[in-house]
Amino acid sequence: MLKVGDKLPAGTLYEFIEVEGNGCSLGPNAFDIEKATAGKTIAIFALPGAYTPTCSAQHVPGYVQKADELKAAGIDEIWCVSVNDAFVMGAWGRDQKTAGKVRMMADGSGDLARATGLTLDLSAKGMGVRSQRYSMLVVDGVVKTLNVEAPGKFEVSGADTMLAQARQLKA
């Protein structure tokens, strides 16, 4: 399992782009994780699925509400990662009003979830293998903090925890 001090695994995440520009076309665009994290401080939070109750009611809204404070604490970007396709993540981002605040990154095949060892088998609920709920602070591709939730919990991966950790790292 991924731990503090590890480099993020190599791989690709996808983001649905609404407006063409900066080398990105409309629709799903691929982003190399290593290149996208190079030289940046990124708050990443992952969750089991788009549109699921806790994710939609608490996890994403918390990061949207705290986005300005997180950026003031030294965070360059905030990523929400889920084992969903880029179309679903884009639609969910529109619903959650994440534009300009949280990048909705798709791990459609669960490659990143598997590579980090942070998977959650929800096959019994018809959802297959997903990502555990967690958050991490990544600096230049290296994990500085990692907050993994117990199954069914939402206690340590929210925006308030990430904000406190970002402020501590900046101090």
UniProtKB/TrEMBL annotation:
Q: Which reaction does it catalyse?
A: a hydroperoxide + 2 glutathione = an alcohol + glutathione disulfide + H2O
Membrane listed as a keyword: no
In short, the EC number is 1.11.1.27
Q: Which Pfam families does this chain map to?
A: Redoxin
> Which residues does UniProt call coiled coil?
none
Any idea where the Thioredoxin domain is? 2-171
Q: Which UniProt keywords apply?
A: Antioxidant, Oxidoreductase, Peroxidase, Redox-active center
This molecule's function is given as: Thiol-specific peroxidase that catalyzes the reduction of hydrogen peroxide and organic hydroperoxides to water and alcohols, respectively. Plays a role in cell protection against oxidative stress by detoxifying peroxides.
What does the sequence similarity comment in the record state about its family? Belongs to the peroxiredoxin family. Prx5 subfamily.
Q: What is this protein called?
A: Glutathione-dependent peroxiredoxin
The species is Caldimonas mangrovi
